[in-house]
Amino acid sequence: MKGNPEVIAALNALLTGELSAMDQYFVHAHMYEDWGFDELYTRILHESDDEKAHAAKLVQRILFLEGTPDVASREALNIGKDVEEMLKNDLNYEYAVADHLREVIALCEAKEDFQTREILEVLLDDTESDHMYWLEKQIRLIDRVGLQNYLQTKM
Predict the structure, then answer these.
(1) How far apart are CA 30 and CA 103, in angstroms?
(2) Is 155 exposed, middle or buried (0-12, 13-18, 19+ CB in 10 A)?
(3) Are 14 and 75 in contact (CB under 8 A)?
(4) Which of 2, 18, 50, 63 meets the CB 3.0–4.6 Å disulfide criterion with 54?
(5) Which CATH number covers residue 29?
(6) Where does the source fall among the domains of life (predicted)?
């Protein structure tokens, strides 16, 4: 099925974001592992896998629309220097991804590509209700109990 070129371009831009988020989570996960924060390592590695699954859905849709997935492009990564900065950088990335998803959902609506819109709505729900929510909780925990107490619970 020949897709709308604007939608395909927007999906490729989303793909770049998902792959970049996957890479950032991957690096952060291994930093957590190196520092002995096994709980954070496990969760953030899971987030990297989730981003990979999101990227796979985008690749599949781009191919279905007879486009060419751009799997080489990446955005600049924001690798943190400590746990709190890493969590905040990841959350900021998720906010940007959610905003971009909303924009592309609106484009799909305007171009009457309702199936792509539905796929993106699922990704948005996962981003908001899982990724962003978990990261926001971690930052609130740090604010409530202090960084050192928080870190003790993540070993």
Answers:
(1) 32
(2) exposed
(3) no
(4) 18
(5) 1.20.1260.10
(6) Bacteria
d(CA 65, CA 8): 7
Spatial CB neighbours of 14, under 8 Å, sequence gap ≥ 6: 58, 97, 100, 101, 104, 120
The reported pTM is 0.95
- Cβ–Cβ under 8 Å, residues 60 and 5: no
Distance of alpha carbon 13 from the chain centroid: 13
Question: Mind listing the pLDDT tens digit of every residue in the chain (155 residues)?
Answer: 899 999 999 999 999 999 999 999 999 999 999 999 999 999 999 999 999 999 999 999 999 999 999 999 999 999 999 999 999 999 999 999 999 999 999 999 999 999 999 999 999 999 999 999 999 999 999 999 999 999 999 99
